Amino acid sequence: MRVLAVVPARGGSAGVPLKNLAQVGGVPLVARAVRACLGAELVDEVVVSTDHACIAEAAARAGARVVERPAELSGATVSSESAVLHALGTPAADPEVVVLVQCTSAFIDPADLSAAVRRVLDGEADVVFSGTPTHEFLWTPAGAGVNHDPASRPRRQDREPQFRETGAFYVMRAAGFREHGHRFFGDVAVQAVPARHAVEVDTPEDLEIVRALAPFVDAPEPIDVDAVITDFDGVHTDDRAYVDSDGREMVLVSRSDGMGVSLLRRAGVKVLVMSTEQNPVVAARARKLGVPVLQGLAEKRTVLRDWLAIENLDPARVAYVGNDVNDLGPMAEVGWPIAVPDAHPRVRAAARVVLTRPGGDGAVRELCDRVVAARPAPAEPAPATPQRLRFRPVRIADVPVGDGEPVYVIGEIGINHNGELDLARRLIDVAADAGCQAVKFQKRTPAICVPAEQRGQIRQTPWGEMMYLEYKERTEFGHEEYRRIAEHCAERGLHWFASPWDVPSVEFLEEMDVVAHKVASAGVADHELLRALAGTGKPVILSTGMSALHEIDRAVEILGTDNLIMMHATSTYPLPPEEANLRTITTLKERYGVPVGYSGHERGLQISLAAVTLGAVCVERHITLDRTMWGSDHAASLEPAGLEHLVRDIRIIEQAMGDGVKRVFPGEEAPKARLRRVTV
């Protein structure tokens, strides 16, 4: 070993309690010192001498070897030299050069440290210490000039600079240090360092200064994490809200953030938005970004802990971005606490990274770019034989639905019947004529499902102007309508069932003796509804739109897996291709071990057909007579010809998928005999 760096870091401190563990830029001072030494190319090993267990733990995590400092060398009056001499007395410590590095200097450039080491190794000096050039005039308390004559003071440009000792590092020839027992001996030289690196932390005020400087002094580094959690107001927005005359809020966001989040998701980084407020604006933006959101959180820190546990994430590899004091709790839980530049001073002080772009003006994009930069370049995939996961089918009435069975195609009538029985019958005919196996409706109890604040709102409908609650009741079918629907479905050879939105609707459908139940994506977190459905013993088809895995996990715990079919879905109407995320079909199969289908809301057929090739065991699409009809779901529905083509193409794909066994087919025999040329 030629060069050993020793970092004395005792637990006691008069000015700042446990100063060596104080965080600057989100990193303890002792870890910053260790990192600087490890970054210096000429330093062979870093030792931290300490009497404190937490300091030892932080030093070891940063990559240092820890030497336990005895009590007699840990008092306030003991010199740093004594800790260095003690470290030199440990086994395998016989360096040519020893470096004393002090944690109190938060900013040490590894290049400056290496340059000083080189000067000692090359024989230029016996000792080289860090100093910053200064032209300051010093005075005694009595008013006498120390480094100047008060009667004759030349201009700054006419004076040679003097150097102020910064206390950051002292590079010494080890033999000379052992001989003299002091850091200054023989030929002494100064290694000039910039003034911005020359703040030494001795008081709380010094600590505030270096924390404020850290975002400007620390070199930007890639942020290597597996998940990014962000606050909303002040991070995705500029922390202002625009309110119109009806009290509706609007916020300012950056379009570039959307691309950044998309890049994160493609790189396999989990993204979550957390907000103290419950606000439709937050939900709308999260939906646009395609990320989960947790709102109305009284205690973010506890929720974050639970989410990390559910997602099985190492907190050290998670970033949290905040701007105000309610973000301090979750920031303390993760390895990468991050702040926007205009954050509360306490938040900036707690941050490991302070972004340069403010919220609403590209802060999220800046973070995303730095996270993506830390991800390894994707390796070229090795050629592999595709394997399709196969699970035991679930039987819906007389039809098995699962791997190896024909794709079960559901025509989603939903509320596209607009409350008209004749229109519902015509849509049943469309599904039957196209070759579907089932049709599905939606069943609600409006008095339960319609929020109180919306019930009295006036809506324009095909039946004239009416209150929203009245409109919802107008479009609901009762026992008589569903009895006639059941009769017509039986005549056309179709199954029928519905998505109940509340417990009384489950009871209603049970009275109608439906063959299965469907959970709409909006119902995944309605545990009361799920318990009622589980109690029926009927097959349950669970849509997973707008749901995170931990929400689906809880739903599956309630429903069980014996009689469960899942549907991958993205609840955007209409669905853009970039949000389809069809590989989630495989993810759901692997995670839950149940048959998985696809519920689509896109325009066209391509995405639904691709889902079949990825193993979707059933496909559900909204159907309509005309996409221009009045109603919320018609625009994202298939017209009769589109549905017919979908079923036709699904059946062609089923035949084309084969069994994966490579063989010569009968149709190839004749061309083979005619064209094959064999040589030896």
Structure, explained:
The structure is a single chain. This protein is of the alpha/beta class and 680 residues long. It contains 24 helices and 29 strands. The strands form 7 sheets. An 8-stranded parallel β-sheet has the order 24-21-20-29-28-27-26-25. A 7-stranded mixed β-sheet has the order 5-4-1-6-8-7-9, with helices on both faces. Strand 16 (336-339), helix 11 (345-350) and strand 17 form a beta-alpha-beta unit. Mean pLDDT is 89; it is low at 383-387.
* Cα-to-Cα separation, first versus last residue: 63 Å
Largest sheet: 8 strands, parallel
Helicity, as a percent range: 25-40%
Strand content: 15-25%
* Overall pLDDT score: 89
Q: Please compute the radius of gyration using only Cα atoms.
A: 35 Å
Number of DSSP E strands? 29
User: How are the strands ordered across the major sheet?
Assistant: 24-21-20-29-28-27-26-25
Annotation field: number of helices: 24
Large-scale geometry: elongated
- Backbone structural class: alpha/beta
Q: Low-confidence spans: pLDDT under 50, at least 5 residues?
A: 383-387
Task: Give a brief description.
By secondary structure, the protein is an alpha/beta fold. Helices cover 34% and strands 19% of the residues.
Secondary structure blueprint with pairings:
Blueprint: E1 3-8, E2 23-24, E3 27-28, H1 29-39, E4 45-50, H2 53-62, E5 65-68, H3 80-88, E6 97-101, H4 110-121, E7 127-134, E8 162-173, H5 174-180, E9 188-192, H6 204-217, E10 227-231, E11 242-243, E12 249-250, H7 255-266, E13 270-274, H8 280-289, E14 293-294, H9 300-310, E15 318-322, H10 328-331, E16 336-339, H11 345-350, E17 353-354, H12 363-374, E18 394-396, E19 399-401, E20 408-414, H13 421-434, E21 438-443, H14 446-449, H15 452-455, E22 458-461, E23 464-467, H16 468-474, H17 479-492, E24 495-500, H18 503-511, E25 517-519, H19 527-534, E26 540-543, H20 549-559, E27 564-568, H21 584-592, E28 596-600, H22 606-613, E29 618-622, H23 640-657, H24 666-675
Parallel strand pairs: 1-4, 1-6, 4-5, 7-9, 10-13, 10-15, 13-14, 15-16, 16-17, 20-21, 20-29, 21-24, 25-26, 26-27, 27-28, 28-29
Antiparallel strand pairs: 2-3, 6-8, 7-8, 11-12, 18-19, 22-23
Helix pairs in contact: 1-2, 7-12, 13-17, 13-23, 22-23
